[in-house]
Amino acid sequence: MATFAKDVGRSGGHAADSYGALSSLLLLSPFLVLLVVAFVYPVGKLLLTSLLSPDLTFEHYEHVASALYVRVFVRTFVIALTVAGITCLLGYPVAWLLARVKGKAAFMMTVCILIPMWTSVLVRSYSWIVLLQRNGIVNEALVGAGLIDEPLKLIYNQGAVIMAMVHVLLPYMILPVYGALKAIPVDLSRASANLGASPVRTFATVILPLSMPGVYAGSLIVFVLALGFYVTPALVGGPSTLLIATLIGQQVTQTFNWPFAAALSTLLLAATIAVTVVFRRFMSFSGRL
């Protein structure tokens, strides 16, 4: 029996080693073609557009370095970071509760989390306009209750942009955190309680550290998505809350300055890649991922 197992192992290993470089390349060819067509070629075209107008020049990148566009980049990163922080604070308790309820309660919570993801971002953004405009539901309720004398300016400002983006991106924080919490064995909490730890200490010393990979993953997803958000800031934001994606859209559709829009897009892509790489390096160094 042992001899038969060794023979099977040798034959399996031989079969596995029989794939050469050419065979492996052929197996990967559909993915490589898709990668070139859907990513490499568009990014290369974008880079060339930002540099050629019609000769090789860096004037568009020098234009981006002006104070106006630097403020737009800084504002975009600040809002993206704020949205990631708020979604983390709001999403973690929801994910924690979802990981512990069962039956119909778990089903209803899952439905409430997933249905917004299936709803158009445009529809959800317009709903905030209905809620926050001067004659909207919120202002009418406040005026009717006698709390204010005249409608407040609740929309077309940075607060409205952050609130609407948190609403849209919250599920992308809840789901990774829920996955991390669900993977934690229940026996760890029981063992901590048996050793005399209070529920608060168990959460702080056992649950929270083990769920941090989900928190980090959700924060990265939300932050990267918020960097390139276009529809929601364009609808509920004003001139004082111009973000980089909205600026790129204006350069393409209004001023038709494609080279400058390509330079902005290239810098945004480079910033997104840099954030992702730094995040991965940091997490590898800390041993979280």
Automatic annotation (TrEMBL):
The keyword Membrane applies. Residues 73-279 form the ABC transmembrane type-1 domain. It is a multi-pass membrane protein. It is found in: Cell membrane. The chain crosses the membrane at residues 21-44, 77-99, 106-126, 160-181, 215-236, 256-279. Keywords: Cell membrane, Membrane, Transmembrane, Transmembrane helix, Transport. Signal peptide: none annotated. It holds the Pfam family BPD_transp_1. InterPro entries: MetI-like, MetI-like_sf. PANTHER family: ABC TRANSPORTER PERMEASE PROTEIN, INNER MEMBRANE ABC TRANSPORTER PERMEASE PROTEIN YDCU-RELATED-RELATED. Belongs to the binding-protein-dependent transport system permease family. CysTW subfamily. This is ABC transporter permease. It comes from Ralstonia mojiangensis.
